[in-house]
Amino acid sequence: MATATAVAPATSRVAGVRQNKKRYGGLRPWLFALPALAVYATFLVYPAATSLFFSFTDWDGLSPTYNIVGLANYTAMAQDPVVIQALLNNLIWTVVTIVVPVLIGLTLAILLNGKVRGKTPLRLLFYTPCVLPLVSIASIWGWLYNPDSGVINETLRAVGLGDLAQPWLGQDSTALWAVMVPAIWLRVGFPMLLYLAALQGIPAELYEAATVDGASRSQQLWFITLPSLRQAHYIVIALSLIDSFKVFDMIYAMTYGGPGTATQVMGTWMYANVFQYYQAGYGTAIAVVITVIAIAVSIPYVLSQTKEHA
C-alpha cells in the first residue's frame, strides 16, 4: 500500500510535467525570439509599412496633414522622364559594376592562389578599398577628377595629351562613367576574397590527376576551376546585384545626380524628392519600387540557399 501510494503522486507529477510541456512547449521558442522580433518590428517592419502607406499620399514630409491619392504617385513615375533616365543609369551601373569587378576579382584570386611572392600584402592591398568609408573614396576621386588641378588632367597635360583633359564629372558624356571607375575600384576586393576562399577549397588531387592526363592550364581552368566555383559565382553575382541597384552614396557624394540628370539613379532621385522638393509621398513611392526590385533580385539567391541547406 505504501509503495502504491508513493507511486501515484510521482505518476501525477510526471503527467503534470508532460502536460505543461505540451501547453508551453510551442510557446517557449517564441519567448526567446521575442526581443529580436521586437527590434525587427520596430526598426524594419514599422518603417517599411509606414513608407508603403505614405507612398499612397501627397504628404510633403513636414505638414501634419496629407491626402490619400491612391496610385497617383506610381502612375506619375511611369511618366517621369527623370525616373526613366534613373532606371537606365541604374541598369548601366549594375551591369558595369558587376561584370568588371567580378572578372578582375576572379583573375586576381586565381593569380594570388598560385605561387606568388607577397600574397598577404597583395591581398590586403586589393581588399583595403572595400573597408574604406565611401565618402572618403568619393572625396579622393573627386580631387583626382578636378578639371583644373586634378592629378588625372595634370598627368595628361604633362605627357602631352592635354587635349584629352576635360571636366570628367562636369559633362553628361563622361560623368556616369567617371563615377563608375572608383565604384569598380572599391568593389574588386569582395569577389576576390570570396573566390580566393572557394579556390582554396578545391581538392589538389583534381589538378594532379588532370596534369597526369595531359590537361593544359587553360583546360584545367575551364573544366576544373570554373565549374568548382559555381556556388561562389552565384553568391558574388547575387550580392553584387542587390548592392549595385541600391547605389546612392557614391553618386550623391561625387555629383549629386548631375550634371542635369546624367548620373541620376533611383536612390538619388528618391532623396531629391523627399528632402529637396518636399514630395515625400512621391519619394517614398520610388523607395517602394527600389525595395520591390531588390527583393525580386534576392529571391533566387534565398531560394538556392534554402534548398542547399534543407
UniProtKB/TrEMBL annotation:
The chain crosses the membrane at residues 30-54, 91-112, 124-144, 175-197, 277-303. It is a multi-pass membrane protein. Keywords: Cell membrane, Membrane, Sugar transport, Transmembrane, Transmembrane helix, Transport. CDD domains: TM_PBP2. It is found in: Cell membrane. One of its GO terms (biological process) is transmembrane transport. Coiled coil: none annotated. Residues 87-303 form the ABC transmembrane type-1 domain. One of its GO terms (cellular component) is plasma membrane. InterPro entries: ABC_transporter_permease, MetI-like, MetI-like_sf. SUPFAM superfamilies: MetI-like. Belongs to the binding-protein-dependent transport system permease family. This is Multiple sugar transport system permease protein/raffinose/stachyose/melibiose transport system permease protein.
